[in-house]
Each structure stands twice: as structure tokens, then as C-alpha cells.
Design brief:
CATH topology: Chloramphenicol Acetyltransferase
Largest sheet: 6 strands, mixed
Radius of gyration: 21 Å
Number of domains: 1
CATH architecture: 2-Layer Sandwich
Order of helices and strands: EHEHEEEHEEHEHEEHHHHEEEEH
Distance between the termini: 42 Å
Helix content: 25-40%
Strand content: 15-25%
Number of helices: 10
CATH class: Alpha Beta
CATH superfamily: Nonribosomal peptide synthetase, condensation domain
């Protein structure tokens, strides 16, 4: 992971870098049953040539050398996990699974169940799959989230697109940002146990389930005080509130807390590669969720704006203390896992990761452009559900991902319907 303070300068091969805080916490808590993968799915309007795509992606990796890394071997008494940078990939990062009616489904399943190993450089896998209906290429990026996050890997893919098509894939200038506002005084207590997503119909197998769909980007009045992200936040909160009410679990009457990643990195070629987002939590009481939609949108906008302006470590001060190298890393890993288990009741209800408008055209020239881009974030328990959104060409690409120990595919479809209903309500009832 590259923290917000790291510099995106070329790093020589063989250099060894201690795991930053986010990477180390994730490494401590790895589980075989629910791999920590990020799935990115890019549907193109044309077909890519295997040799050209392989060459373009390999060159993109070299232009972002921080992605060419592996976990170094260590002694039992080592006090750190360490990344070791490499000149070239240890294993071919690009593959071309054959066509078939279930090709997309199988590729999604691999993205959820087969994490690229940390011991081989790079910790990312790119699969180019022909769409069974059109023959156009669908790209599946699978990322080991211990090492990298979605926006960083999308930056690398944008570089590969530019190399493949010979066209500029840089982002537009960033929009002007509003001045930060002070934190509102009426935030629900962070010490209260949050609501959990009520169990549905679990599946008799471990791992994550996934549902992707395509919706219109919600409209909002010109000059509105809230953003599309706030509309998504309200839709997510009300979706879970409705789901919990339908399932009648009294524990779900606790306040909802929704984790929201905030990414302050530039999107150009200087973007630091790694896990660069920081996490904030947006809380709602049950009474607040019963407010009219316009009032709830204004409340949400106030909170999200204030939380984005806070300066704090990526995972908070407690995580920084946990990763202090006071003892061998194996001992601290055991302590971290025990603390994670003990703190599970205070973990947020769910995670909403809104990538926003895809900042790159992802234009592969004669290979086509991106017409849809889906992301999904890990959905391990105790959250058990994550909501990830991105948008291209006025369409919202929604991915619901859940732990199969909590929900089943039918539950995911119902949650999608609830989300669509509540997202539509944010534009129908908005002032």
C-alpha cells in the first residue's frame, strides 16, 4: 500500500519497503474462506488483440513500478512484513480464458475466490474474456486488497489503454472543491453498537456472492447542496433499514453506520499506487432515517462534507498503534486478530464505496472504449455486505457483494430492488 504521504517516484528493483499500516492490518487478518479481493470489470465496445494487450499492460506495470512487488520472505522474529520490488513480473499477469456461455460468470467467480498471491509480483491479475453475445472484450482485474486498491489499479489500466490505443487517457482537470466545514455537533455516538445487516437465506458454501446491474445516474437540482454520493448514501441507508425492518431483528434498530472510503490522490500519472484511501463512517439514527428524503439528503451532505475534511490516519489512531513494531510480526498478528474479533460488534453496518464518474476514457483505440465499469469490494463478516458504484456515460454501475454466510442470491436481488427504489426517491422528492 502507498500512503497519502508517499511520493510517486520510480523505485529501484530490489528495494524493500515495510508494509504500511493498512497493508499490515489486512495481512494479519487474511482468511482463505473469504479472500480480500477487489474485482474490476470493464466492458469494451471492441475486441483486443492478445499480444498487444499483454505488451501494453506489461509496459504500464513498468511505468508504475510500485505495483511490481511481492511479499519478501522473513524470519520468525522479524518485526515487519516487507514488500520487495521487482523489475519484471514473477508470473504472467495477463491471461485469455476461452469463450463460452458462462465465461463472464466464471470470471466473476474467480475474481471473488482466487486472490493473486502476495508472494509473486504483481499482486494483480488481468483476464480478457470475450463477451458471449457480442464477442467484444470484457476485462477482469482481480486485485489482492492487501497490496492495492481499485482506483490505483484503474490508473494502471488507463496507462495500458493509452499505450494500446495510442490515445490520451489522462483524466480531466479536477473540479474545484468547497471549503471544509466544521464537524456537525449532532453526530450519533461512535461508541454505540451499530445495526447489523439482518440475515437472509445463506448459501451452504463459504465466500462472497455478487450481483451487478446498470441504473440511471440519479438527477439532482442545479445548485443542490448535496452530491450524487449523498444520494447513494441515503439510498444505501434506507435500503438496509427496510431490509432489517422486513426481517424483524430487534438488534437492527440500533444506529446505522456506513463506512465510506475517501480518496484524495491525484488521478494523473503521479497517482501513488497502493491502498491510498482513508475510511470515514457516516452514522444515522433510526429517527433520522424516518425523516423526509429532502431533509435526510441535507443532513447527509452536512455530515459527509465535514467527515471528508477531517485529517486523520487512514484507519484511525488505534490501527497505527497496532502496527508499531514492538514485537515480532507473528505475535502482533495474533493480537490483531484477537482484537478484531473482540471489536466485531462495533464494526460498521456496511461499506459504500462510490468511485464516482470514471475519470479516464479507457480508450483502447481500435479495441474500443469502456461502456461500463463495475467494481466490488470485499464483503467479509461481520459487515457481510458492500455496495460499490461507478458511472460512465450517465449510467450508474452498481455492484452488491455479500458474504454467503449471511445472504443468498435471492437476497441480493431483493436488496438491488430496494436500492433502486430508494435511489429513485432521492430525485423524485428532492427539493
Amino acid at each position: 500500500m502507498t500512503t497519502l504521504d508517499d511520493h510517486p517516484t520510480p523505485t529501484p528493483s530490489g528495494k524493500r519497503l515495510p508494509f504500511p499500516t493498512v497493508d499490515e492490518i489486512a495481512r494479519h487478518c487474511l482468511q482463505d474462506d473469504e479472500p480480500e479481493t477487489v474485482h474490476i470489470e470493464v466492458h469494451l465496445t471492441g475486441q483486443l488483440t492478445p499480444d498487444r494487450l499483454t505488451a501494453a499492460f506489461d509496459e504500464a506495470l513498468r511505468r508504475h513500478p510500485r505495483i511490481l512487488m511481492r511479499e519478501a520472505r522473513r524470519t520468525w522474529y522479524a518485526r515487519r512484513y516487507v514488500w520487495e520490488l521487482t523489475d519484471t513480473p514473477d508470473v504472467p499477469p495477463v491471461s485469455f480464458p476461452g469463450p463460452g456461455p458462462d465465461a463472464l460468470k466464471q470470471a466473476r467467480t474467480r475474481s471473488l475466490t482466487q486472490a493473486p498471491p502476495l508472494t509473486a509480483s504483481p499482486p494483480v491479475r488481468l483476464e480478457a474474456v470475450p463477451h458471449p453475445d457480442t464477442g467484444n472484450t470484457v476485462l477482469f482485474l482481480t486485485i489482492n486488497h492487501t497490496a492495492l486498491d481499485g482506483p490505483a489499479c484503474l490508473r494502471v489500466l488507463a496507462t495500458a489503454a493509452g499505450l494500446y490505443g495510442g490515445r490520451d487517457n489522462g483524466p480531466p482537470p479536477p473540479p474545484a472543491t468547497a471549503p471544509p466545514r466544521p464537524a456537525p455537533p449532532d453526530l450519533p455516538s461512535s461508541w454505540a453498537r451499530p445495526a447489523r445487516v439482518a440475515p437472509g437465506t445463506p448459501e451452504p458454501r463459504p465466500g462472497n456472492g455478487l450481483l451487478v446491474c446498470d441504473l440511471p445516474v440519479p438527477r439532482r437540482p442545479k445548485g443542490a447542496s448535496y452530491t450524487v454520493n449523498d444520494q447513494l448514501m441515503v439510498a444505501t441507508a434506507r435500503t438496509i433499514a427496510d431490509w432489517n425492518a422486513e426481517h424483524g431483528d430487534l438488534r437492527t434498530r440500533r444506529p446505522l453506520r456506513i463506512t465510506m472510503p475517501v480518496d484524495d490522490r491525484p488521478r494523473d500519472a503521479s497517482m501513488p499506487i497502493g491502498n491510498g484511501t482513508r475510511l470515514v463512517e457516516v452514522a444515522f439514527t433510526t429517527a433520522e432515517l424516518r425523516r423526509p428524503v429532502p431533509a435526510l439528503l441535507r443532513l447527509t451532505a452536512t455530515r459527509t462534507t465535514a467527515l471528508k475534511s477531517l485529517v486523520r490516519p487512514q484507519l484511525g489512531h488505534g490501527a497505527a498503534l497496532l502496527t508499531t513494531p514492538y514485537a515480532p510480526v507473528a505475535w502482533r498478528a495474533a493480537a490483531t486478530r484477537a482484537l478484531r474479533t473482540a471489536a466485531a460488534p462495533w464494526t460498521s453496518t456496511t461499506l459504500l464505496s462510490n468511485i464516482g464518474r470514471i475519470p479516464y476514457p479507457l480508450d483502447f483505440g481500435d479495441g474500443g472504449r469502456a461502456r461500463a465499469v463495475w467494481f466490488s469490494a470485499p464483503a467479509r463478516m461481520p459487515r457481510g455486505l458492500t455496495v460499490t458504484t461507478a458511472s460512465t456515460a450517465g449510467r450508474l454501475h452498481l455492484a452488491l457483494r455479500w458474504s454467503r454466510t449471511l445472504l443468498g442470491h435471492g437476497d441480493g436481488a431483493h436488496l438491488r430492488d430496494l436500492f433502486e427504489h430508494h435511489l429513485h426517491a432521492t430525485q423524485e422528492e428532492a427539493p
